[in-house]
Amino acid sequence: MVDLTPLFDPYVALPILHIIGIVIAVGAVIITDVVNGFLHLRPGFAEWDAKIAPLFSLMVWTGFLILSVTGTLMFLMQPQLIHDTLFHAKMLFVAAVFFNGVLLNVWITPNFQEISEEWEERTERVKAFEVIAGLAAVVSVIGWMTIIVLGYLLANT
Amino acid sequence: MTILILGAGLGVAEDDEQYLHIEEALEESPLTAFVLAFNGLIILTSLYFIIKISVEVWRNHIIHG
After folding, report:
1. How far apart are the CA of B14 and the nearest CA of chain A, in angstroms?
2. Do B10 and A8 lie within an 8 Å CB cutoff?
């Protein structure tokens, strides 16, 4: 019989839930970037991409919610983290990824849905949009990967 | 998943000593309050976007099928 009692220990349960949150959020970020990269090669998929993009955003915010709730609880259990420089660096990257996510949802996604019909024509508007969206995607991927590395170092050093 | 959530919630609620640590941390560094407030902002923003996007997706599903 498998012993599940360690799962009732918050020092075990919270990190596991935190990792589940990372998997959901980072998985959605990566699939969004892969689909958008594919869109650059096959512009005909723009309208289809615009329709499913909100679902990926939903996944990212769900992951963010799990991460922030479990992260807050873990911080409450280890408030001495506030003196750790690694924790400060991690929170800075969390802030960068968070505000980047807000920008994506408030400006980029609505604009993408608006210009997706003219995507195949490669207008100046589409090209300018692609540069801004590409930058946001780079910030997102680098930010999330750095958060994972810093989180691992925080837990293991 | 349910076991994990229950474990996390019950464990935190039962740990009385942690409140002392938090009070100390709040006294020692103003960053503690900032981190907690920032996490609260992320939680509220996430909830806002989850509800907003869900409503939009559902509305599009009803309109366009």
Report:
1. 10
2. yes
